[in-house]
């Protein structure tokens, strides 16, 4: 929704394709419809259905492929379902572009999970870090990442793979399974207790969705330098925080006290992941502009204005 809003504000006609399976996405749809009644065209549909994907993609100038089964936990409970959405769904998108919009740039929201657990790695991660898919989600997103990149080589599509670290911001619907910053914000504001899996010192570099949307825009620029590239994308070292630091920042910005308990670390949870942004900065002259404290304050202001179920 943030990307649809961003592109509509830049004057694009946006075709939004989603099956609204994510809890809260229906509320986001009402919001985006009110913001952009004539420039956002919603097509309800599922990426597992190749015919509707083909129809949705036909004739477009750019595709942001963000639809996914997004939770590691769900992928462990239902690997086949995860595969169907994340890998078969991605192939449907790629084939739809190849047949119906071959000049379009395809941006794929990949993930830092393609690099595995990265035990003991204390430096920022560059794109030449060896791939190491773990968990069904890591495998399905990682394989999709490779297919998207290869459709550039095998079929000449203009593809861009963005290996995203932790993204947060307005309109994010978090749960214990995925979207942990949103889950923390909504829970702390509502006085709901949190469970922290592990010791709370897992580190992520946090990126505000508004910064990511600026990058999406640079990535789809016709004839731009992003085509064929793979970039690690996150908040970078200056926006790296551990979970307990994020909780403390939310407490400071909201004036609310968090309640939490600790539980066993979950499979596939990297101890530390921080993106090295040198490659994307040098290619696209992009770097994050919103620091974590400002981004969290903005997200809290939004979360206070909505009722989240
Ligand atoms: N948020 C992060 O920190 C993060 C990090 C790395 C990668 N990503 C990737 O970014 C993308 C967006 O993630 P997000 O965090 O905004 O999650 P999200 O759940 O808000 O977005 C995913 C959207 O896909 C839709 N969807 C799910 N299954 C679908 C299907 N079968 N057909 C059509 N639509 C379907 C959902 O309804 C939802 O609106 C995903 O591909 C995710 O893997 C996110």
Task: Tell me what the structure shows.
By secondary structure, the protein is of the alpha/beta class. The protein has one domain: Rossmann fold, CATH 3.40.50.720. Helix content is 42%, strand content 17%. The chain has eleven helices and twelve strands. The strands form four sheets. It has a four-stranded parallel beta sheet with strand order 3-4-5-9, sandwiched between helices. The site of nicotinamide-adenine-dinucleotide has 24 residues, from helix 5, strand 4 and strand 6.
CATH architecture: 3-Layer(aba) Sandwich
Proportion of beta-strand residues: 15-25%
Spatial order of the strands forming the largest sheet: 3-4-5-9
**Structural class by sheet pairing and helices:** alpha/beta
Strand/helix succession: HEHEHEHHEHEEHEEHEEHEEHH
Quick rundown:
Helix content is 42%, strand content 17%. The protein has eleven helices and twelve strands.
Short descriptors:
309 residues, alpha/beta, Rossmann fold, four-stranded parallel β-sheet, four-stranded mixed β-sheet, 11 helices, 12 strands, globular, binds nicotinamide-adenine-dinucleotide
């Amino acid at each position: 929704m943030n990307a649809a809003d961003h592109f509509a504000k830049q004057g694009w006609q946006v075709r939004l394709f989603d099956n609204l399976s994510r809890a809260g996405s229906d509320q986001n749809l009402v919001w985006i419809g009110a913001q952009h009644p004539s420039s956002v065209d919603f097509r309800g549909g599922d990426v597992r259905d190749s015919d509707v994907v083909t129809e949705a993609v036909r004739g477009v100038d750019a595709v942001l492929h963000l639809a996914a089964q997004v939770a590691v936990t769900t992928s462990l409970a239902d690997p086949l379902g995860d595969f169907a959405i994340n890998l078969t769904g991605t192939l449907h998108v790629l084939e739809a572009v190849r047949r119906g919009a071959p000049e379009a740039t395809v941006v794929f929201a990949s993930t830092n999970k393609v690099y595995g657990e990265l035990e003991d790695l204390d430096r920022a991660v560059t794109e030449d870090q060896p791939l190491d898919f773990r968990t069904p989600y890591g495998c399905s997103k990682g394989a999709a990442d490779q297919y998207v990149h290869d459709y550039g080589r095998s079929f000449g599509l203009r593809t861009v793979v963005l290996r995203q670290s932790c993204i947060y911001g307005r309109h994010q619907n978090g749960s214990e399974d995925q979207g942990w910053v949103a889950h923390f914000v909504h829970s702390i504001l509502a006085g709901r207790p949190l469970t922290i899996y592990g010791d709370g010192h897992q580190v992520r570099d946090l990126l505000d969705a508004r910064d990511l949307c600026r990058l999406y825009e640079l990535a789809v620029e016709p004839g731009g330098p992003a085509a064929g590239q793979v970039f690690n994308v996150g908040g970078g070292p200056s926006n790296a925080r551990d979970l307990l630091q994020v909780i403390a920042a939310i407490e400071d910005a909201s004036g609310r006290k968090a309640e939490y308990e600790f539980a066993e670390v979950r499979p596939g949870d990297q101890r530390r992941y921080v993106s090295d942004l040198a490659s994307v900065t040098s290619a696209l002259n992009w770097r994050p502009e919103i620091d974590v404290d400002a981004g969290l304050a903005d997200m809290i202001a939004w979360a206070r204005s909505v009722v989240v179920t």
